[in-house]
Design a protein that fits this description.
An 8-stranded mixed sheet has the order 1-2-4-3-5-6-7-8, with helices on both faces. It has a single domain, classed as Alpha/Beta hydrolase fold, catalytic domain (Rossmann fold). By secondary structure, it is an alpha/beta fold. α2 crosses α3. 38% of the residues lie in helices and 17% in strands.
């Protein structure tokens, strides 16, 4: 396999995995989770989707990987201890989505990707970013996939200890990241694969089923036996050998995207 290419695109760090050969190829963009693997490089190692005739460009989430503060996750921990929704989940998902158009334009100038529709993939909080791209933009997309995704942000907030003290601002923020409610905007945008670990948080499992039911025929739910929420071992910052459950996810994603590629016939 070709070696990963690292760089930045409009300030967003990325790890790009090229297809075999030198020809211009389609582009699949990913956003990693904030659990392990929690960097673009680690996510690329966990879900490389090798053998796909497409570029896989793994983008770094805010304050992760090359954007960590002082080389550690301490600053992120401080944010979710301060306010898991308004200091952490909501602004991270919003920033990653808002910085994507400029990052995509930069990627297209740096790498030999074609100018056709792209594929998108998001895991955990990165799933909320991919869903925002689907629901709130008109960017041409040939296929989308989610892995243990943050589909209803309220479900993610509920995973933190204690009862979250919602007010008018935070209610508006959390409701803006409820993608079951936005299913009508997602339906028909692109074929959607929703991967849910058999041992993922029960509420996230329920949300995955609800999204597929709401989106309808253009979506598909795939359960991965034995998979909990993370896709890699801690600390999940540096690339690591692919775990067996991640390999099962990787195989499902590779098959899905290969079938959906524009020239798949």
């Amino acid at each position: 396999m070709n070696s990963p290419i690292t760089g930045t695109a409009a300030g967003v760090p990325f790890t790009a995995l090229p297809p075999a050969g030198d020809a211009t190829a389609p582009l699949i963009v990913t956003w990693h989770m904030l659990d392990a693997p929690r960097s673009d490089a680690a996510f690329a190692a966990a879900l490389p989707m090798n053998h796909l005739p497409a570029w896989r460009v793994h983008l770094g989430m805010p304050m992760c990987g090359a954007r960590m503060v002082d080389g550690s996750t301490d600053a992120v921990v401080a944010l979710f201890n301060k306010d898991p929704l308004m200091s952490f989940l909501y602004p991270f998902a919003r920033q990653a989505a808002e910085e994507f158009p400029a990052a995509l334009a930069s990627i297209r100038t740096q790498l030999p990707v074609d100018d056709g529709p792209i594929g998108v993939l998001g895991a955990s909080l990165g799933g909320a970013v991919a869903l925002r791209i689907l629901a709130e933009t008109e960017l041409p997309i040939f296929a989308a996939a989610l892995v243990n995704a943050a589909i209803r942000m309220r479900s993610v907030v509920d995973l933190f200890p204690g009862d979250y003290p919602y007010d008018a601002e935070s209610e508006k923020a959390v409701d803006s990241l409820d993608f079951v409610e936005k299913a009508s905007a997602i339906a028909g945008r692109a074929p959607l694969l929703v991967i849910s670990g058999e041992l993922d948080h029960p509420a996230l499992r329920t949300d995955a089923r609800d999204l597929v039911d709401a989106v309808g025929d253009s979506s598909e739910l795939r359960s991965i036996p034995g998979l909990a929420h993370p896709l890699a071992d801690e600390p999940g910052i540096e690339p690591a050998p692919q775990l067996p459950h991640a390999r099962a996810v990787d195989t499902a994603l590779t098959t899905w995207f290969r079938h959906q590629l524009p020239d798949a016939g």
